[in-house]
C-alpha cells in the first residue's frame, strides 16, 4: 500500500457527504440523520460508542488472560481452592490487565478519553475534567461494555467462566474494601497527573497508566481479585448469575478510591503544585516560543517576497518606451535575479528560493523539537 497516493473515491449506500450529495467522494461522510442532531448530542454519541467499544476490547483481553491463567492452574483436575495462586499466574493476570489498558487507552484516547472504568469516570467528574452529563452516559456505557466482554469470553473459551473477583488468602471484607480503595486511588491519581494534566509527557500517558494498573494488580489479584473497576466485577457476575455477599465492595471501594484521588488532586492544585518545581516544563515552553518566532519570521519573509516581486513589476512598467513596448535592461534587477522578456521567470525563481528557505527554517525547528523528545538536551536546542 502506497501511503503517498491520494485516498481513492468510495461510497456508502446509506451515507451522504457533508454537502448532502451521495456517490463517490473523498470527503467526510455523514449519516442521513446526522445533520439533524445538535452538536452536543452528536459528540455524546461519538464518546459513548468509542467508550463502549474500548471497554469491550480492554476487558475482553484482560479477562481472556485471566481465564487462561485460571484454566492452566486447574488443568490437573483439582479445584482452585486446592491449588491456590502462584506468582507466575498472578503476573500473567496483572500483565494482561496492564498491557490491555495501555494499548486500548492509547487507541481510544482521542475518541472518548479511554477511561473504560466507572470509578475513573466519576473521578474525572469530581475534578471537573468531564461534565456530569457526559460522565453519566459513559458510566452506563462502561457497565454495558463490561457485561459484553464477559459474555464474549464465556462464549469463546471452553469451560466455565472463571474470572470473577473474590476475596482470597483469608482476606476479610473490611480489608478487601480498603485494598480496593487504595489501589484504585493509585490508578486514578496516575490518570489525573498524566492525562488530565497537560504537559510534555501527556503523549505517553497510556504507558504510565497501564503500568499503574499492572502494579496495582500485582498487589490486589491475590487478595481481592484486583477489581479497581466496577464494570470488571459486575460483568462476570451477571454472566455467571452469581453475586457474592460482599460484591458491594467492588463498587464502594473503587468509588471511594476515586474520591480519595480527586481530593488529593484538588489539594495540590489549590496549593499550586507547579510552583514547587517550576522548571520542569521550561524546555517545552522554550520550544513553543521558538516555534512562534519562526512562524513570525516566515510571515515576514513571505511579505517581503511579495513586496519585492511587486516592486520588480512596477520597475518594469516604468521602463516602457513611447510606443508602449518594454525596454529591456541587461543585468540583475533589484532582487538580484535576471529578468526575462516578461519577468515571469525571475518571479518564479525568487518565489522558489524563498519557499525553499522558509521550508528549511521550519524543518530546522521541527528537528530540534524531535531531538528533544527522543532524549536531546536543552543545550542542543540552542
TrEMBL record:
Gene3D superfamilies hit by this protein: Glycerol uptake facilitator protein
GO cellular component: plasma membrane
Segments crossing the lipid bilayer: 44-63, 115-132, 139-161, 173-196, 203-225, 245-265
Protein's cellular compartments: Membrane
Feature: compositional bias, Basic and acidic residues: 315-331
Catalysed reaction equations from the record: H2O(in) = H2O(out)
UniProt topology in membrane: Multi-pass membrane protein
Pfam families found in the cross-reference section: MIP
Similarity-based family: Belongs to the MIP/aquaporin (TC 1.A.8) family.
Name used for this protein in its record: Aquaporin
Lineage, uppermost ranks: Eukaryota, Fungi, Dikarya, Ascomycota, Pezizomycotina
Amino acid at each position: 500500500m502506497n501511503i503517498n497516493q491520494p485516498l481513492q473515491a468510495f461510497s456508502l449506500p446509506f451515507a451522504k457527504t457533508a454537502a448532502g450529495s451521495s456517490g463517490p467522494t473523498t470527503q467526510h461522510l455523514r449519516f442521513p440523520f446526522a445533520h439533524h442532531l445538535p452538536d452536543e448530542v452528536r459528540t455524546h454519541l461519538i464518546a459513548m460508542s468509542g467508550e463502549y467499544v474500548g471497554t469491550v476490547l480492554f476487558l475482553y483481553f484482560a479477562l481472556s488472560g485471566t481465564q487462561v491463567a485460571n484454566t492452566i492452574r486447574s488443568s490437573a483436575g483439582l479445584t482452585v481452592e486446592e491449588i491456590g495462586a502462584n506468582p507466575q499466574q498472578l503476573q500473567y493476570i496483572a500483565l494482561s490487565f496492564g498491557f490491555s489498558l495501555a494499548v486500548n487507552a492509547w487507541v481510544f484516547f482521542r475518541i472518548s478519553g479511554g477511561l473504560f472504568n466507572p470509578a475513573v469516570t466519576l473521578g474525572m467528574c469530581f475534578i471537573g475534567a468531564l461534565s456530569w452529563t457526559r460522565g453519566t452516559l459513559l458510566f452506563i456505557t462502561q457497565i454495558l461494555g463490561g457485561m459484553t466482554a464477559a459474555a464474549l469470553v464465556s462464549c469463546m473459551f471452553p469451560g466455565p467462566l472463571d474470572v470473577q473477583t473474590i476475596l482470597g488468602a483469608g482476606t476479610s471484607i473490611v480489608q478487601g474494601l480498603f485494598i480496593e480503595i487504595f489501589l484504585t486511588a493509585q490508578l486514578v491519581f496516575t490518570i489525573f497527573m498524566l492525562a488530565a494534566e497537560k504537559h510534555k509527557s501527556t503523549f505517553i500517558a497510556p504507558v504510565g497508566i497501564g503500568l499503574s494498573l499492572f502494579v496495582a494488580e500485582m498487589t490486589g489479584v491475590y487478595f481481592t481479585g484486583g477489581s479497581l473497576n466496577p464494570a470488571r466485577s459486575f460483568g462476570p457476575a451477571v454472566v455467571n448469575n452469581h453475586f457474592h455477599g460482599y460484591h458491594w465492595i467492588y463498587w464502594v471501594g473503587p468509588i471511594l478510591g476515586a474520591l480519595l484521588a480527586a481530593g488529593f488532586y484538588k489539594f495540590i492544585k489549590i496549593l499550586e503544585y507547579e510552583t514547587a518545581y517550576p522548571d520542569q516544563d521550561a524546555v517545552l515552553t522554550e520550544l513553543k516560543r521558538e516555534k512562534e518566532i519562526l512562524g513570525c519570521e516566515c510571515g515576514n519573509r513571505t511579505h517581503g517576497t511579495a513586496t519585492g516581486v511587486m516592486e520588480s513589476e512596477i520597475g518594469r512598467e516604468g521602463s516602457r518606451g513611447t510606443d508602449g513596448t518594454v525596454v529591456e535592461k541587461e543585468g540583475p534587477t533589484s532582487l538580484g535575479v535576471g529578468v526575462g522578456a516578461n519577468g515571469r521567470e525571475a518571479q518564479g525563481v525568487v518565489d522558489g528560493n524563498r519557499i525553499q528557505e522558509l521550508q528549511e527554517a521550519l524543518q530546522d525547528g521541527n528537528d530540534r523539537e524531535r531531538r528533544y523528545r527522543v532524549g536531546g538536551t536543552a543545550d542542543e536546542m540552542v
